[in-house]
Amino acid sequence: MTPDTLFSLQGKTALVTGGATGIGRMAAEALVRAGAHVLIASRKAEACEAVAAELNALEALGSAEGFGGDVASSEGIMALVSEVNNRTDKLNILMNNAGVSWGAPMGQFPHDAWDKVMSVNVAGLFDLTQKLLPILMKSGSADDPARVVNVGSVMGEVPMGDGAYSYSASKAAVLHLTKIMAKEFSPYHITVNALAPGPFVSRMTAFATADEETRERVGKSVPLGRVGRDEDIAGCMLFLCGRGGSYVTGAVIPVSGGINVVTAGNIFAEAL
After folding, report:
1. Which of 69, 85, 89, 181 is least buried, going by the fewest C-beta atoms within 10 A?
2. Cα atoms in the 13 Å half-sphere on the side-chain side of 132
């Protein structure tokens, strides 16, 4: 088997929620370049349409189309599922990337910040996935399962509040749900895995990644010394969604530059 066939996604159809910006945009481009037809959905339909046009202009092996879709409510999810079913009769890949955050210091964190964040990041992810199960089941086989990739966060793996308490808790829930779904969906030939990214350039992290100077400063706090790049997400997606990932389910890939394994220093160093 050659690298071309190992990571090829030709003939596959994917849905990327929140695919107009940030990690979703990085993933959508990777999937298109690998040959997939990618449906890009987010609350801002015009932004999704614009990104789809950009990706189609690459003259890559795949193609894209963009439209509006909101996972913040039951009604929005039903409308998104209906739109997907109107546009395709198969869905080989679902990337649950849409998410929101909220930041406030301890002692000032509002109650409302929990309902909004958990509704999108956890309930929305879960409900969209279960409502797309019929088309995912139809598209997967024992030899080539359908793939679900959930976007968690390194903040869901390690105890980092950093003022984003509901976000961190929601991403911990995403990682746990990933393992539950992986167990329950495996008989239906669907793999479920998650990414746990560290800092990447996105609208959500614009306060920390908007300019090169700030990115370099943030990167110095990452064990591997930088913020994430587009190819870091692309490589994970091609592995999980290609033939090489067909025997992997329930995994959490820490795309965080080593933040996931940062621990206390050598507490016995002073005794040596």
Report:
1. 89
2. 35
Does the global pTM surpass 0.90? yes
Nearest to 27 by CA among 59, 55, 61: 55
Element (H, E) at 192: strand 190-195
Q: CA nearest 130: which of 179, 77, 169?
A: 77
Q: Tell me if residue 167 is catalytic.
A: yes
Looking at residues 233-259, what average pLDDT do you find?
A: 97
Query: 3-260: which CATH topology?
Result: Rossmann fold (3.40.50)
Question: What pLDDT score does 28 carry?
Answer: 98
Q: Which residues of 134-157 are buried (b: 16+ CB within 10 A; e: fewer)?
A: ebbeebbeeeebbbbbbbbbbbbb
Catalytic one among 165, 167, 188, 247?
A: 167
Whole-angstrom Cα distance, residue 53 to residue 56? Answer: 5
- Full 3-state SS string of 53-96: HHHHCCCCCCEEEEEECCCCCHHHHHHHHHHHHHHCCCCCEEEE
- pLDDT category, 25, cuts 50, 70, 90? very high
CA distance 257 to 268: 26
Helix axes 230-241, 22-33, angle to 10 degrees: 50
Please report, for the chain, the start and end positions of each structural domain, with discontinuous segments joined by +: 3-260
Note the pLDDT tens digit of each residue in 171-214.
999 999 999 999 999 999 999 999 999 999 866 665 656 677 77
